[in-house]
Structure formats: C-alpha cells, structure tokens
Amino acid sequence: MSMQTKYLLEENQMPRFWYNIQADLPKPAPAVLHPGTLQPVGPDDLAPLFPMALIMQEVSMEREIEIPEPVRDVFRLWRPAPMFRAHRLEKALGTPAKIYYKYEGVSPAGSHKPNTAVPQAFYNKEAGVKRITTETGAGQWGSSMAFAGSLFGLQVEVFQVRVSYDQKPYRRALMETYGARCVASPSNETVYGRAVLAENPNHPGSLGIAISEAVELAVQRDDTKYALGSVLNHVLLHQTIIGQEAMEQMQMADDWPDVVVGCCGGGSNFAGIAFPFMGHGLRGGKKSRFVAVEPAACPSLTRGKYAYDFGDTGRMTPLTKMHTLGSQFTPPGFHAGGLRYHGMSPLVSHCKELGLIEAVAYNQVECFEAAVLFARNEGIVPAPESSHAIRGAVVEALRCKREGKSETILFNLSGHGHFDMMAYQKYFAGEMSDALYDEAELAKSLAGLPNVPETA
Amino acid sequence: MSMQTKYLLEENQMPRFWYNIQADLPKPAPAVLHPGTLQPVGPDDLAPLFPMALIMQEVSMEREIEIPEPVRDVFRLWRPAPMFRAHRLEKALGTPAKIYYKYEGVSPAGSHKPNTAVPQAFYNKEAGVKRITTETGAGQWGSSMAFAGSLFGLQVEVFQVRVSYDQKPYRRALMETYGARCVASPSNETVYGRAVLAENPNHPGSLGIAISEAVELAVQRDDTKYALGSVLNHVLLHQTIIGQEAMEQMQMADDWPDVVVGCCGGGSNFAGIAFPFMGHGLRGGKKSRFVAVEPAACPSLTRGKYAYDFGDTGRMTPLTKMHTLGSQFTPPGFHAGGLRYHGMSPLVSHCKELGLIEAVAYNQVECFEAAVLFARNEGIVPAPESSHAIRGAVVEALRCKREGKSETILFNLSGHGHFDMMAYQKYFAGEMSDALYDEAELAKSLAGLPNVPETA
Questions:
Q1: B88-94: Cβ within 8 A, 24+ apart
Q2: Which residues of chain B does A118 touch, with a Cβ-Cβ cutoff of 8 Å?
Q3: Which of A361, A443, B73, B319 is deepest in the core (most CB within 10 A)?
C-alpha cells in the first residue's frame, strides 16, 4: 500500500469563486457598531481603512464571489495546494480513522496567509492605493503582505510587535527581502505609539497596539490603506479557497470528512477549511463536525465572553461581537505567535453561538509532542500554530480508536515550521513549559469590556 | 498576459528511471583508485561504506536505472516539482530571453537533497543496515538524511561542522525533530576526531573532517553504513530526476533551453538538472550550453587542479580524479555553506574536461543582489546556494539583451532560503562582504596533492 497519497488538483481546477458562508447561515451575524454612536457602521465608515471592493466583500450576502484573474495568476505560484492522506500517522496511532491534511505551507511565505494578502494587495492596487500599513506578531502575516505588495508594486509598512522584532529577526529579514519597511511597535511614528512609549519606554508591544498604530497611519493619509490578516469577514472569505479545494480533493479520494479540524487564533485558517464544508451541510449535503483548536494560553472561544469589543488596544476600531478576552488582555508569551490575539473572528464566534462548531484548547507542550510525531511520520515539520490542529486531529483519531470507529478526519496544516526551529530546539532541550495566563488579569480585562446595550 | 506560468506534471508523469550520463559520454571517467595500491577500486572495496545496490549504481554504465516504487512513493510528498517561467524577472531585466526555473525548494527539507537521501535510506534499509552516519555543514544534507531516515526507520547520526553546530542551531533542531542524533565535529567519538581535538581543542571543524569521522564509524560497525550528499556518481544519478522532469516540462512549454544553469558545490544539483539535457544532446538531440556557477570563495572548477585527490581531510576515502583545491584547503566562511567543499564531483569534472560544460565563479554579494531581485519579482526567497544559479541566469539574460537574442535559459532553484534569513539580514545591514581565500594557502594545498602517476 502506498504510504503517501497526494490529492493534487489540475491548475484549471483551482476555484474561480470564494465561498461566502453568510449566504447560508440560518441567522445573520450581529452588526458591526460604530464605537461612538453604537449604530451599525456603513461602508463609508470603513472607507478610510479599506478599498471599497473589500468593504463590499465584508458585508456581502452573495454565496459566490469571483476571484479576479490576476489574483488566480499569482496563486498559480503555489496553488492548487496538495491534500495528503496521513497513512503513516494513522499507523503510528493505531487508529481505524482515516486522517487527511490539506497543506498550506507550500506558499512562498510558508503559510496560508498569502491567500488573503494577494487579493488585498490586488484590490488596493486597483483602487489606486500606494501604501499599505499593517501589523504583525512573529511575522507570518507581515511577510505575506510584504510578498503580495512586492508583486503588485505597493509600499508595505509593517508594525511588528517589539518583542518579536528584537527576538525574531528572521521573518523581519524576510519582510525586508520583499522590500517592505518594518517598524518596531510601539513606535515614535504614531500619536498612539508615542503615548504608549511615554508611559513605558521599554514597552514590549502587543498585536493590539500594533493594530492601533497601523490604523492611525492609514486613516491619516489618502494614499494609504490598512490591511488585516485575520478576523474580518473578507479575510475569512479569501481563505475559503482552502476548503473549496479540499472539497474537490475529498471527492477525488471518494471520501468526506466526519470531522474538520483547524487551529484557531483570529479564525481565518480554520474558517478557510471549515466554511465550505459547513455550507455544504447547511445546504442539505453531508454534515461534518467542526473542531476549532485554540491555545490554552489565549482561549478566546473556550474562556472568552461573547460580547462587543474593540479589535485593538487603542480602541480605534469599530466594535464587533465576538468571543473575546478583552482588548486590554495581554496573552502570555508562547511559540504559536499567530494564535496570540484577544479576540475571535465575529463569523467564527457567531457559528460557535449557533452550535455549528466546537472549540477545544490545548497547551503548547502537548501540541509540540503531536508536531514531532507528525514530522517523524509524515515528513513535514509543522508551524507551532498548525501543531494545534495536529493535536486536535490526533485526539479525534484516538477517540475513534477507543470507539472502534473508522471516521474520516480532515485537518488544515496551515504552515511549515522552518522559521520556528528555535521553538523545537527549546522543546527538545526540555526548556518548554505551558504558558499560563493570569486569571485575575483575564477577569479584569473582561470586566472592562465596552458597555453595549443588548438592543444595539 | 499571465505573469506566472507553472508547468506541473501529473503524478503519473513522475520519472520511473534515473538517467545515467555515463552511458552516453564519449569517453569514460577516470577510475577511482585505492589510496594504498593506486589500483582501481572494485565494488568490494566500497562495501564497508555503502550497500551493494548503491555501489552498483556508482559503477553502472546502463542508461536508465529504475527508481524503486517505495522511493517514488515518498517522492509523491513533493514531486513532481514545478517548473516556472520567470516572466516578472524577464521584465525587470528588460531581456528578450525567456527564463525558466525548476523549483526544488518544495521538499520537506526545503532543498533538492531529499532526492538522494530517500533512495539512499531505502537501499540501506533493504540491505539490513540499522544506522547511517553522515556529515553536514550548515545542515541541508544532514536534515534531508534525517528526514529520509525517519521515514524508513533508520537511525541517523550526523557529524556537523562545529562552527555551524554552534552558530546555526536551527537546522540542528530540524535534524532532531526528524529523530536524528547530531554531533559537533571534530568530536571525541572517533579516533580521527580525537586526534584533531588533541592538536586544537577549539577546532572549528570542516566538511572534510566531518566526512573522516562519519566514514570511520561506518567502517567500524557492521550495522552501520555511510551516506554522502553530493560528489559521488550515484548521488548525481539520483538528482537526475530534476532534469528528467524539466525535460518533460520544457516540452509542455513547447520550448527547449539554449543554456542550463546550476549552482555547483559538490555538483549534484547542477548535474541533476544538466545531465538529462546533456545526454539528449549527446544522443543527437538539440544541444544546450551548460553553465556551472560556483562561489568565488571556493572555486574548484575555475581555480582548482584536475587531479587525483582525497574526498576528506583525514585521507581515508578512495582517490578520485576531480577539480580540487586540495583536501587540506579550508575555504573561507561564506553563507552558501552547501557550496563550501574542496572538490568537485568526478563526473562533473570529467564533463568539464570533455568541454561539455562551462564554469564561472561569482562573489556572494553579487549573488545576494540577484537573489533579492528574484524574490521581489518572482516571490520565492532563494537559498544562498541557489542565488549563485540566479546570478548565472541573470548574467546570461543580460548577455541576451546586449546581443538582442531571445534565447531560452533554464536554471535550477535548488532550495528556499527560509533557514538562511540571517544571511539576508546581514546583506541588508550592509554587513556582508565577499569572502576571499588566501592564495598562498591554496598554492600550498595544491602542492600537497597526493602523488599519483599519470599511468594510474
């Protein structure tokens, strides 16, 4: 028997449309509110931040939204992405379950992030934008936006959380290789950055602060817009190409997932693989379970409150209803930097409230265990973020073993770990522990959520 | 016009045979000699080091050698590898030339090295071998062998040059993730290593020393064999899958290369892309030019002597006729560690002597310039080794521009640079200079070549 089964689509099978889950949900997601008026925001309110094409995608109820040809053209560099059957992992676990994984680490930036960076660059370029500001933690998103910007001739300015800027110079070098400018946040380049630095000149920064800085600059300048790498509806929409492809590949395999697993930080890679299958079920097709795996150190879905909150620490963004740990919450440091955000995407949160998805949280050491097991059996070294999905899939596979069930499990391997070998080094040296958040700090942060009447 | 043209083979178009250039060369390559007797070595002389299947490949004159199905099965994880037309790079250079590149960075180790690590692991496993010893510099080869060993259940022990072991812990972590044991060389685990350390306890190590250590252990133990990642005939043979695929892809593109370019250290990735096209020409098909690009800091083909020499510093290996800087030569430190070897593959050297290939040498700064130009236009960040091939292709493309010729250029992009961002960081910080070797040291090293009579 083959130990490596790859399901690869032809180039002309690459999806021509993104799938919009909003068309199929039994109930629309709560409105986005203006933080001042608490009234629903309209497209014009978002115009200083995003080009209109992306705003229209943000609010669209159309089921299918066409992927522009120049975007598909860039996607050809690495898409369609492969799906594999993990025969060796199944054998190692002794499970009767069938495990498949979709692999998004084949992109030039090594993760799924270019799936949305490329269309965001395209629509901004079309709208005459000259410069994109954005934020990044460890740098997956920043390097993806830098990559996309270089291909469409856009200047990209990345506010990188200072602690990552100082400690992880490699992804910064990657951003610079793509021609982007990288600034440590908090910085002296914004009013908000200067205010944070005035209070604490050695502030280590956070994603929430970096967002505030990037947003501030975009609002100020006519030729500049802002880009976000997760959370928003249009970002999740762009990632559905993952699941759209996986659906075709599952048909090639003559199989269909009983359970779909993804790691979940802002929610975009999880939604990317889950939403197309979820829509299939909502429209009367075979129903799957959907398991969002988040880090126990930053558990918005499993421990957060479903409430209106800001997307940034500086409280500049609109209010969205989501599972949140509070915009003033600072998650502890852990290696899956891409999952280190206080809020969950409003659409994923809404699906959780509707009972369409399940959520679990795992600690980082057990996730690295799963990652090493995976690497030694399947040959690919996963990103720390993706290791959460692997852990989730392994837990499901072992449940199948206990229950004697031959279920089909599909998970999204969102990126490779070649930039994260420092974390593996710590794991092997026995220097990795589970990062814990402070319960009192979480309670305080949740108590400080903005006061939005139920009727809003 | 599409800015990204990918030529992707179907899985069932993956080559079933490796191509052996020895079948088509107008003159056989000089024999490999026993260092004691100066007589040609027979298969039995090599049996302590390699399983017989690989030894038979080393000396085979058959044109086609079948790729075992379990090897092709593992290859499916990333092969067939894509070939791209570099439209954006062509435009940036303003050249009438057509530039294509074959991309080998899609493997789990990020380079072409698994193309030979996997069959080497397979044949050793078949022969009942339990443990593989090998050497590595920066770690591309060691991590590839570790990857292959993990899939076939072989214990892999890697002697890593101490200076890389200390300064570049990431690829070491990658080897450990795949379950390999990594030892800093010179080590206390071998007679030769102890002798080197006795003379200099702080010896930084070299590839030649690490080879001596790995060979020593393999010879000592019955259950242990040795693996080499380049130079040898069977290694080059395994890499011809690159060129075999590229020939099919060139046919898909309805084109054929006027010139094929590869970076050249030990010679395996260059031979991998060049030999199948070269054989096509030797058998009466369209002839291409072949340009081997080596680092100016370690220029065996352009500045070495074509002579019999040892493959290692400890003078334990058989003698092979090759372009060599002398086995006692220590190349200066530079970022393309994979090209930092005193000798050139005997087969590539032989082709050079036959006038079948050309060789050029470039400095590292001009290669990084080419790499950054490539990354910003084509989206893939190249390994420092591969940047030499890009430089070579750019030079050819600019010649075409001067001459007004629309030639077809094909180069091998042997790996991605995600493990090498430190080098890019130095480049952008202006801290990179061209590494120069000491002319006096080279002269001394060449004067010390073993004395082998012309008649041998």
A1: B88/A151, B88/B3, B88/B4, B88/B377, B88/B378, B89/B373, B89/B374, B89/B377, B89/B378, B89/B394, B89/B397, B90/B397, B91/B377, B92/B373, B92/B377, B93/B394, B93/B397, B93/B398, B93/B401, B94/B401
A2: none
A3: B319
